[in-house]
Structure formats: structure tokens, C-alpha cells
Design a protein that fits this description.
Blueprint (H helix, E strand, L loop, with lengths): L17 H5 L1 H18 L11 H16 L2 H7 L3 H12 L5 E3 L5 E5 L6 E6 L10 H16 L4 E7 L10 H16 L7 E6 L1 H14 L16 E5 L11 H4 L8 H12 L26 E6 L5 H11 L6 E6 L6 H7 L7 H13 L1
Parallel strand pairs: 3-4, 3-5, 5-6, 6-7, 7-8
Antiparallel strand pairs: 1-2, 2-4
Helix pairs in contact: 2-3, 3-10, 6-12, 7-8
């Protein structure tokens, strides 16, 4: 689609009922109670708790917040991905560069859109939440470092339809459409195109790679002339199941919960069944033999509730994708670099450093 095409909002505005609005009061009181309780239990948290006292309280409150609030309430509270991007751009005094994509999606440029290399980024949020402004802050800082090192690269953020407004395979279709736009309409060599995402966005990254090798029956095939330059996934949501030990082991270290994951997974899947595209861990090893990328990075925090499922996935694919790089970053929760930025911490995390060094090697 042409850059000048009129922009259509990706997601409709959420209008809460009176009951949903009134529910914020008991929800807020519950969060206050959680914070007080965490302040007490944090003093005797032991090895099963978060690494620091402050983190223990923060994660307890966020954990309750995410499962206590409905998807509609959360959507009401947060700006859309497009609005977050515009807020970021205005704050930096730069002109937003947004492209209308097929299937109702949008793409947002970070950096020079004529750069030689492009990173297509799929944000996380359980397919239910938009990208926070922290996403754009984090990756603009990374982009600045890469450009300063002589790397000619820009980021292209996909704004996709959130669940339950859009159910599988809507988001995968839009993710493929973003790649189709970059390789066909901007005429870039696939070897200069990188895919990446966190959590649900990592799910999409792996789903797009699957589609390139094994076209999804409900999505238009996309043939590329060469493998992609690389792909990276931060704490990818590879399994909708929640029976791995890390869900229990890290229950008080991470800020995600079983209840939250189950709710978001159901909203995303709808009436569909888990398959090789949305449930990457169930794909047999041979599925990945013809993966269309020159490099693959998978990285996750040791305190993440999904770390064991990510490890199982990597162990399954590595024999057939030997160039897979896997890093477990000690002491970090789910998507640590992003959650840290969300709470104002700009220090580079181990996960952030892992991605930066990978780009320095592969760009």
C-alpha cells in the first residue's frame, strides 16, 4: 500500500460500561492491599522471591493488575500502538512516519526509512495489549547505538489488530503483510531484512518464519529470493500450555501469572486449535529444516515463567537449525528490557546487551 494512503485505525476504541468503570475502585483497593502485603512478605521472600525488595513489590502489584483487570479495561487504560508511537515522536520532536498496510494493519518507522537494513518488529502483550511508549524508547536507543557504530538500519513496527477483536490467524496474516510490504513495495533484498519480537511478538516472528517455509492455508504465500538477514525472539510465547516447572518456580519472581496467560491465550486462539504456526513448540524438528533466515537468536530471562518452554523449544530445533543462538539471562523477568523501561529504568540489561551484540555481528 502506498505511503500516502489514508490511515485507518487498527483497533476500535473501547467504551466501558458503567459497571466496568465502577470496578476500577475495588480493583484499585486490591492493588493497594497487594502492595502492602508484598512490602511485608518481601522482607522474608527467600530464594523463591524476586531478586530485590523493590522488584518483589513491583512484580506482585503488576501480577495482580494484569490478571485482575479485564482485557477491555486494560485496553481502555492504554494508548494504542499508533498513539504510543505518535506520543514518542512528538516528545522527540520528529515527524511520525506511518504506513497503511494490508488487512487493516499499520507500520511505524523508527529511523531513516531509506536505510539499507530494516528490522520488522512485532510487539508483545499477549496479543491483547498495544505497544507501550517504552518500546519506542528502548529501540530508538538501540537504533542510535547501531547507527553510531556505522550500521545503516531502521526499525519498522507493526501495529496489528488486538484480541479479542482480532483472533488467530488475523495477527499472523498482518505480520506476513508487513514483511511483504518491506520486500515487495520497498524492494529490499531479503538479506537486508530482519524479523524480531518479544513474547507474543516472538510467537509472530516464528509464525512468519513457518509461513515462509510452509505457507498457512488461510494466508497468501510469500516467496522470497534469499533467506532473511536474521531473526530474533525475546521470551517467545512458543507454547499456550502452562505445565512447565518454571511457571511454579518463578511464580513469585516474575510479574506474569497462570491466570493472565490463560485468559490472553483463549482470547487470541478463539475457536481455533493450537498448530505449528501459533504453538511453535508442537512443530516437529523437521518443520524447521528449511527456515528462511541466515541467523536466529532466542533469549529469555532466568526468572521468566516461560523460560522452561523456551528452552524446550530451542532444544528441539537446534539439531536442525545449528546456527540458533540461545541465551538465558540470569535474574531477568519476562521481557526485562521493556518492563524496566516501562518503569523508568534506562540501564542496559543482559537481555538488551545480548540483542545489541547480535546486531553488531549480523548487520
Amino acid at each position: 500500500m502506498a505511503t500516502g494512503k489514508a490511515l485507518t485505525p487498527v483497533n476500535s476504541l473501547v467504551k466501558l460500561t458503567l459497571a466496568e468503570k465502577l470496578d476500577f475502585l475495588p480493583a484499585g483497593l486490591g492493588l493497594l492491599a497487594t502492595a502492602i502485603a508484598a512490602a511485608i512478605t518481601g522482607l522474608v521472600r527467600g530464594r523463591d522471591g524476586a531478586r530485590t525488595y523493590r522488584t518483589h513489590i513491583r512484580h506482585a502489584v503488576v501480577r495482580r493488575f494484569l490478571w485482575r483487570m479485564s482485557i477491555r479495561q486494560l485496553r481502555f487504560m492504554y494508548p494504542s500502538t499508533a498513539q504510543a508511537y505518535e506520543l514518542y515522536a512528538r516528545g522527540r520532536g520528529i515527524k511520525p512516519q506511518t504506513v497503511q498496510l494490508e488487512h487493516g494493519a499499520q507500520g511505524h518507522w523508527l529511523g531513516e526509512k531509506d536505510a539499507k537494513n530494516v528490522v520488522i518488529y512485532y510487539h508483545g502483550g499477549g496479543f491483547a495489549l498495544p505497544a507501550y511508549p517504552a518500546y519506542f524508547q528502548l529501540y530508538s536507543a538501540l537504533l542510535k547505538q547501531l547507527n553510531a557504530a556505522g550500521k545503516d538500519v531502521a526499525f519498522f513496527f507493526l501495529s496489528y489488530t488486538l484480541s479479542p477483536e482480532g483472533v488467530y490467524p488475523t495477527q499472523l496474516r498482518q505480520a506476513v503483510g508487513a514483511l511483504r510490504y518491506i520486500v515487495e513495495e520497498t524492494r529490499r533484498d531479503p538479506q537486508n531484512v530482519f524479523l524480531g519480537g518479544d513474547s507474543a511478538g516472538g510467537n509472530l516472528t516464528l509464525g512468519v518464519l513457518s509461513h515462509l517455509s510452509h505457507p498457512h492455508k488461510d494466508i497468501q504465500p510469500l516467496k522470497i529470493s534469499a533467506p532473511l538477514g536474521g531473526a530474533f525472539t525475546m521470551a517467545p510465547w512458543v507454547s499456550m500450555a502452562d505445565k512447565v516447572p518454571s511457571y511454579t518456580r518463578n511464580a513469585k519472581r516474575d510479574y506474569l501469572s497462570l491466570e493472565c496467560g490463560r485468559s490472553w491465550a483463549q482470547a487470541f486462539i478463539g475457536n481455533a486449535e493450537p498448530d505449528n504456526y501459533n504453538h511453535a513448540i508442537q512443530a516437529p524438528p523437521e518443520w524447521w529444516k528449511d527456515i528462511k533466515t541466515k541467523s536466529l537468536l532466542v533469549y529469555v530471562g532466568s526468572d521468566d515463567v516461560i523460560v522452561d518452554s523456551v528452552t524446550q523449544f530451542v532444544e528441539k530445533i537446534k539439531p536442525v537449525v545449528p546456527f540458533t543462538q540461545y541465551m538465558i539471562c540470569e535474574g531477568e523477568p519476562h521481557i526485562g528490557p521493556i518492563i524496566n523501561r516501562r518503569f523508568g529504568n534506562r540501564e542496559e540489561t543482559k537481555m538488551g546487551k545480548t540483542l545489541r551484540l547480535w546486531f553488531m555481528e549480523n548487520l
